[in-house]
Write a structure and sequence with these properties.
Layout lengths: L6 H8 L15 H14 L5 H6 L8 H8 L4 H15 L3 E8 L2 E8 L8 H19 L7 E3 L9 H7 L3 E2 L5 E6 L12 H18 L4 H11 L8 H7 L4 H10 L4 H19 L4 H7 L5 H12 L3 H8 L1
Parallel strand pairs: 3-4
Antiparallel strand pairs: 1-2, 2-5, 3-5
Helix pairs in contact: 4-5, 8-9, 8-12, 9-12, 12-15
Length: about 325
């Protein structure tokens, strides 16, 4: 986990150009992402790399989807959020939950990785889900059964530690099974009020996504990446398959610029959170990508004429 790999080594080993892997962007084509993941596991001699990363990351490192999941009141709400919104924020990957006779099963699908070795991504994706459920169910909680499409590894100790003892390999699909009693468990960090605001923002943007309006599409992408670098002009331009210069030109033709759009999205989410939740200003600042509350205070006051605290008090 702690072994650093030079970026140039990755490019040369996998014959990737700068456009395919660039440190200034968190957006990777799905196939490139999987190649890097599998190569990194071999390069670091860690066949359980996906598991180890899943145990290190926090949900809020995944932009809007992570913040939605972090504020789910129950495990059932968490599952609903992951199923509904992952298909939008990361359309090449999906979790589908079904419940029958007291057992809930989660099917994980990778649209572009069929017939490709994707063990690391599968372990990583299921690992994040399991470690998040453990926040409610306890550190020793494991699924009842896990099915994997990849062949049985030589060593199973890390897999069994996270996924339990009932493991099946070379199966038709990647699935985990667990008692549906888990769905009613309370998530310790859930904030129903903040979740409602985030879902309102996400749902409004979902409705707009089908529109060909560039401004609405850019707003949607900013919102999905709120709180991290993926909401930068560079990353959004790449997502739209255009240069930053082209993006800026097209926005200028619509009498607006990227900074104005981004500031508007951030301010709207901030105002909703300040008025409709009890979240501290520090937590709201962190959610929006500010590591220091003072920087968020200056930003908010510059655009609204009030500090976040003044705005919250005036709205009471």
């Amino acid at each position: 986990m702690d072994k650093g790999i030079d970026l140039q080594e990755i490019r040369e080993s996998l014959q990737l150009n700068e456009a395919e892997i660039n440190p200034s962007t968190r957006i990777l084509p799905t196939l490139t992402y999987n190649r890097i993941f599998e190569w990194a596991a071999a390069r670091t001699q860690d066949p359980d790399l996906g598991i180890h990363i899943a145990e290190k990351v926090e949900p809020n490192q995944f932009g809007m989807l992570g913040y939605l999941a972090s504020n789910a009141p129950t495990v059932g709400d968490l599952c609903d959020i992951v199923e509904r919104y992952q298909r939008v924020f990361t359309p090449d990957f999906s979790h589908t939950f079904t419940s029958t006779e007291g057992v809930c099963q989660c099917l994980y699908e990778e649209a572009l990785l069929a017939n490709i070795d994707s063990r690391q991504d599968t372990d990583f994706s299921f690992g994040i889900l399991i470690t998040t459920i453990r926040l409610a169910a306890g550190e020793s909680w494991c699924p009842l059964r896990c099915d994997f499409t990849y062949p049985k590894p030589e060593k199973l100790d890390n897999l069994q530690r996270l996924f339990g003892s009932d493991l099946h390999f070379e199966q038709p699909a990647n699935k985990i099974y667990f008692s549906d009693e888990v769905l009613s468990l309370t998530m310790p960090s859930g904030d129903a009020n903040l979740l409602a605001i985030l879902m309102q923002q996400a749902n409004q943007l979902l409705d707009q996504l089908s529109s060909k309006d560039l401004i609405r599409h850019v707003k949607f992408l900013i919102t999905t990446g709120i709180g991290d670098d993926s909401s930068s002009a560079e990353n959004i331009a790449k997502h739209l398959n255009m240069s930053v210069r082209t993006l800026n030109r097209q926005l200028k033709e619509r009498n607006i610029n990227f900074r104005e759009l981004r500031n508007g999205v951030v301010i709207n989410v901030a105002k909703d959170a300040l008025i409709n939740t009890d979240s501290s200003i520090t937590d709201i600042a962190l959610m929006l990508g500010y590591s220091e509350t003072s920087a968020f205070d200056r930003f908010f006051k510059r655009l609204t004429g009030q500090t976040p605290l003044q705005y919250r008090k005036s709205a009471l």
